[in-house]
Amino acid sequence: MKTQLGNAFLILVSALALSACQTSVSQNQATQNINAPVAKVILDSDGDGVPDDIDQCPATPWNVVIDERGCPLAPIGVGLKMEYRAFFAKDSSELSPEYQLELDKVAKKLQEYDTATMRIEGHASADEVDKKLRSNSLARNRAIIVKNYLIMQHQIDPNRLSTASYGAQRPIASSDTEEGRSMNRRVYGLAQEPED
Fold first, then answer.
1. What is the SS3 string spanning 31-60?
2. Is CATH 3.30.1330.60 what the domain over 81-192 is classified as, yes or no?
3. For residues 191 and 108, is the Cβ–Cβ distance under 8 A?
4. CA distances (Å), origin 39, targets 17, 19, 42, 52
5. Alpha helices in 62-176 (DSSP H)
6. Please, where are the H alpha helices in 90-129?
7. Is the pTM of this model over 0.85?
8. CA angle, residues 99, 191, 83, in degrees to nearest 5
9. 37-46, 84-93, 137-146: the lowest-pLDDT one
10. Per-domain residue ranges for the chain?
11. How far apart are CA 158 and CA 106, in angstroms?
């Protein structure tokens, strides 16, 4: 019984303490209405970025490129167009591991797009040209090493791969600096599906 009286007393004291904390609105205080802007909810049910009220294709699948009306864009051009670049040490046609990894990605796409072909161009730098014949053979070897890697490591049909060698005839950087010359010691490849 003492516990119940103690609890009741505690509740009464708490209620009085809380009521003392409340403040009443004095008659001197005026209430104020604030005209806050109301945000209009813009619905985009399919999540394509075009609001439902102007979306002409309201059920566009996720991750599809759309036009300004919210409709999927038709694919433009070919299904595969992929570039490949590899750079080489001076007087070398050895394909370093980092460029082998990149070539593995190209091979995977060539396997996925079985009608795609790849043109592989070999290039040399001006400082590798002491004889014109030597720079052309070095450029050719660079292109062939890439072609052979695709054939041997990924079983790409050789008829889908073509090579060309340009020696130092098509630089992409100035031969006045070592950095420029190292950029010119390269293979450039373009894998793409034939256009119908």
1. CCCCCCCCCCCCCCCCCCCCCCCCCCCCCC
2. yes
3. no
4. 41, 38, 9, 17
5. 97-112, 132-154
6. 97-112
7. no
8. 50
9. 37-46
10. 40-76, 81-192
11. 15
